[in-house]
Specification:
The complex is a heterodimer.
Chain A (H helix, E strand, L loop, with lengths): L18 H35 L3 H14 L2 H12 L5 H24 L3 H10 L3 H32 L11 H9 L3 H29 L12
Helix pairs in contact in A: 1-2, 1-4, 1-6, 1-8, 2-4, 3-4, 4-6, 5-6, 6-8, 7-8
Chain B lengths: L1 E10 L6 E11 L4 E5 L6 H8 L7 E6 L2 E2 L5 H6 L1 E5 L10 H5 L1 H5 L4 H14 L16 H13 L5 E5 L7 H18 L2 E6 L2 H7 L2 E6 L3 E6 L1 H6 L4 H7 L2 E6 L2 E7 L2 E4 L20
Parallel strand pairs in B: 3-8, 3-9, 6-7, 7-8
Antiparallel strand pairs in B: 1-2, 1-4, 4-5, 9-10, 11-12, 12-13
Classes of the chains: A mainly alpha, B alpha/beta.
Chain lengths: ~220, ~280
């Protein structure tokens, strides 16, 4: 991950000539977001498998993700930094990863639980084993809910990352901090615009990927027989 | 051949126990269709699901071809048994072809071979190949059930378990599916356990009928003609309703069900209907 020293800094009070700054932080912001959401999903997946197979685990898991979410971002950065280092990106990425869990675990579990019982019974009756059933039947059928969760997690991560600016990281959030300190309004506006455009684009990408992955949800009954 | 030997199933804990199946002994011969009928709570579905171990019996043993089902890993056992259920249980996210290829794929067949088999299966159940790439939601209820039957037969299992397979479709389609299944069964000769709450369906499709009463007791097990002619108890007689046997020259040729004639006995010369295939070859 990029060391902050390499970051270009805003010069002057206009946008022109500063696109490299915007582009640099957009890349960083995107990287943080993607890593956090992917890691969060990778953690949520086994957690949700456990919650579906062992229903007693689910409320505990929900409470846990809620509590993590309730930790203020700043406090979490501060708590994580001594472990993960003060000068790299790890604390912010890890914090963002943990925050995605509150959305992803819930959406995964609810999505999987909504898979119709006859489908599961048929799967069992044909000789599916538990893990293969999870990966081959339950997970794909839960995709609409999972994609909804991924979109929400992505957009909320894009928004949350900016807080990291306070501790010297935070992607586009750095531009908020810098623009505020140096009273450069245009830098604030540029960061805000870039954040929103980024959120929109990433959301669109996840949406499109989800659509691509769920062709059966779009084909309805045609005039047959 | 399936042998159910003194099988009972109790649900619940000590304080609050319900008997779903009560000391059931029943065998299904090679190539035979045994219809389990009974009202809800008679344990017919529980019985069926104990055969492929979706439910484990409390006591007793079940053997298929002489092999105790509890000695096999459940998933292996199930891959060797065709299973059709009421709501078809098709995978909504897979095409018709992929659905039908499910068990062959689970058995480790390569994709080409499994797909080729799935295509044959569509022909077998009378579905046009144009349905192959459709998703289940694009099919009618009757077509979905055909796919369900095709899927159950794809790996050519000797045993077929059917849990009200035609229960969710309208009466006209149901009658059509019943006829086609009867025809199919004559060619394939599977050993079939068929659960239904529809007495007419049991009479049309069953070589023998097992009437179960509430509490999971076997009230009578016999051929449709015998059961109609000699119901073993008032319960069985009530359950059969207004159905009687029709005789020609002292031989049963079919049934009169609320005034309507249903040929159902293997007597080719006596059967007049074109719709219902009747033959003398059934086991």
């Amino acid at each position: 991950m990029t060391v902050l020293a390499a970051a270009p800094s805003w010069s002057g009070r206009q946008l022109s000539g500063n696109w490299d700054v915007v582009w640099f932080y957009v890349q960083q912001h995107t990287r943080y977001t993607i890593i956090a959401v992917v890691l969060g999903f990778a953690l949520a997946l086994p957690a949700s498998y456990l919650a579906v197979r062992r229903p007693a685990v689910y409320p505990v898991l929900l409470a846990l993700t809620n509590i993590i979410y309730a930790i203020p971002a700043l406090a979490l950065f501060v708590l994580l930094s001594p472990w993960l280092g003060f000068t790299n990106d790890k604390p912010i990425v890890v914090a963002m990863t943990l925050y995605t869990l509150v959305i992803l675990v819930r959406n995964l579990v609810e999505g999987i639980r909504a898979v119709p019982e006859p489908v599961l019974r048929a799967a069992d009756g044909m000789g599916y084993r538990p893990l293969r059933r999870f990966l081959g039947v339950e997970l794909p059928l839960a995709l609409p809910g999972i994609v909804a969760g991924l979109r929400l997690a992505t957009v909320s991560t894009v928004s949350l990352i900016s807080v990291g600016a306070v501790v010297g990281r935070g992607g586009l959030g750095r531009m908020f901090a810098d623009g505020y300190e140096r009273r450069i309004n245009i830098e604030l506006w540029a960061a805000l615009g870039a954040t929103m455009v980024l959120a929109l684009i990433l959301d669109l990408i996840v949406y499109a990927a989800g659509r691509q992955a769920t062709p059966w949800t779009r084909r309805v009954r045609g005039a047959v027989l | 051949m399936i042998e159910i030997d003194h099988v009972s199933k109790l649900f619940g804990t000590n304080g609050d126990r319900t008997v779903a199946v009560d000391d059931l002994t029943l065998s299904v011969e090679q190539g035979e269709v045994v219809a389990l009928v009974g009202s809800s709570g008679s344990g017919k579905t529980t019985t069926l699901r104990m055969i492929n171990r979706l439910i484990e019996p409390s006591t007793g043993t079940i053997t298929i071809e002489g092999k105790d089902v509890s000695t096999l890993p459940a998933h292996e056992l199930r891959r060797g048994i065709g299973y059709v259920i009421q709501q078809s249980g098709l995978f909504p996210h897979r095409t018709v072809l992929a659905n039908v290829a499910t068990v062959p794929r689970l058995l480790g067949w390569d994709k080409g071979k499994a797909t080729a088999r799935a295509k044959e299966m569509l022909d077998l159940v009378g579905l046009d190949q144009s349905f192959a790439e459709r998703y289940p939601a694009q099919l009618s209820g009757g077509q979905q059930q055909r796919v369900g039957v095709a899927r159950a037969l794809a790996a050519d299992p000797p045993v077929l378990l059917m849990d009200e397979p035609f229960g969710a479709v309208d009466p006209i389609v149901r009658a059509q599916l019943q006829r086609e299944f009867a025809k199919l069964q004559r060619d394939l000769g599977k050993t079939v356990v068929f659960v239904t709450h529809d007495v007419d369906e049991a009479i049309v499709l069953g070589d023998r009928i097992a009437v179960l009463e509430t509490g999971g007791r076997l009230a009578q097990l016999d051929t449709p003609a015998e059961i109609l002619a000699h119901p073993a108890s008032d319960f069985v007689a009530d359950f059969l309703g207004g159905r009687t046997v029709e005789y020609v020259d002292g031989k049963p040729v079919g049934y009169r069900i609320e005034g309507r004639f249903e040929p159902g006995e293997p007597e080719p010369d006596a059967a007049a209907s074109e719709d219902v295939p009747v033959d003398g070859e059934r086991a």
